[in-house]
From TrEMBL:
<dbReference type="InterPro" id="IPR050546">
    <property type="entry name" value="Glycosyl_Hydrlase_16"/>
</dbReference>
<protein>
    <submittedName>
        <fullName>Glycoside hydrolase family 16 protein</fullName>
    </submittedName>
</protein>
<dbReference type="InterPro" id="IPR000757">
    <property type="entry name" value="Beta-glucanase-like"/>
</dbReference>
<dbReference type="GO" id="GO:0005975">
    <property type="term" value="P:carbohydrate metabolic process"/>
</dbReference>
<dbReference type="Pfam" id="PF00722">
    <property type="entry name" value="Glyco_hydro_16"/>
</dbReference>
<feature type="domain" description="GH16">
    <location>
        <begin position="127"/>
        <end position="400"/>
    </location>
</feature>
<dbReference type="InterPro" id="IPR013320">
    <property type="entry name" value="ConA-like_dom_sf"/>
</dbReference>
<keyword id="KW-0378">Hydrolase</keyword>
<comment type="similarity">
    <text>Belongs to the glycosyl hydrolase 16 family.</text>
</comment>
<keyword id="KW-0732">Signal</keyword>
<feature type="signal peptide">
    <location>
        <begin position="1"/>
        <end position="28"/>
    </location>
</feature>
<dbReference type="GO" id="GO:0004553">
    <property type="term" value="F:hydrolase activity, hydrolyzing O-glycosyl compounds"/>
</dbReference>
Amino acid sequence: MRARRATLPPVLSSVLLALLLVAPQTSAAPRSPVPTQRVRIEVLPPIAQMGALPADPSRAETVVTAAFRPHVRGRPVLLERKQDGAWVTARRSRQDAGGRVTFTAPRLVGGRAVAYRVIAAAYGRLPEKSSAPVRSTAWGSPAFVDTFDGAALGSAWQHRIQFYNPWGGRACSKGDPSAVVVAGGTLRLSVLADPARTSETCLPTDADGNPTSSDSYTWRLNGHVSTQHSFDFQYGVAAARMRFPQAQGQHGAFWLQPRGLLDDRPTPWGAEIDVIEYYGAQNGVRTRMSSTVHQHPAASPASTQTVGGPLTDPDRYLESRTDRWWRNFHVFSVEWTPREYVFRIDGQETLRTSRGVSHHPEFLILSLLSSDFELGRLGGDERLPQHADVDWVAAWPLPR
């Protein structure tokens, strides 16, 4: 006798089939979409050129920066150069915490401009991302450049503030042509003892004649020149290749001031843009270097806006353990746009700010000034003279 197969009653079979049809189907959770990636690439003028000797600014390295979204700190990024129709790796780096990466690279290869692009490597769930190409010569030639190759200061420069200036905090110092020398391909700015006042000393005072120090010092002459009456520009990049004195007691600087700067009252437009101020490194005090913007007051000094200031650990921008600010030249620059300033040393970003932006043409200033507050830091007036050297200075207007 055959065994009969067990079967469900017709009604139960229909109910079970209905339950199966309406029961939710289980599957793997849907994956979140891959984030949209963006990259913005920018090429800058040749503003990276560390070295001990004077050099041709056209041989400085250009700077290529890129900003990625989303930010992925540590994500590898390649800088590629187009060569013989193919892309070849030129440099390697990694994104910082803000998704930025900076490269220095030749402006010309074989005497020709080149194309660069950046590529972020595939990282986690992010696929590889490349930028559009940029030309190394996008900024063109500088509108102003001086390489100080002659034997005298060029006609583009004027000597500044040739009087003792307690109103400006330099009661014991003044600008003087004798503190400015062009030779050997550099501009030498000096702090000298004033030979006309060697028989007397100076007690620093404020503008009202009130002493600001209990100590007296040698009267000083300072190297202090500008392009106030020959060249200014509005938006772009300004750069100077400089070397500073090791000693404290004076500060070397590259800075900008606005066209129409007033001498007898606050200037109600523009800004003082201190691209770099170097205050020395000795007497037990670490290197002090600053980049600062002093926006000029719109109506009164109380409205002045100051941005920036001393750099945190400026020695980290040196190229090596043997590099020194007084041993080698470095390029100090500011990129100035209608939206922001970006300060750099040999292409390395040191400060970025959208505050206090000047919307007025600005002229160039180079100086080695001995302000009253720092005179005692020299360690004795017998250490005069002191010197700062400028290899070249240049300005590129913002490309249109």
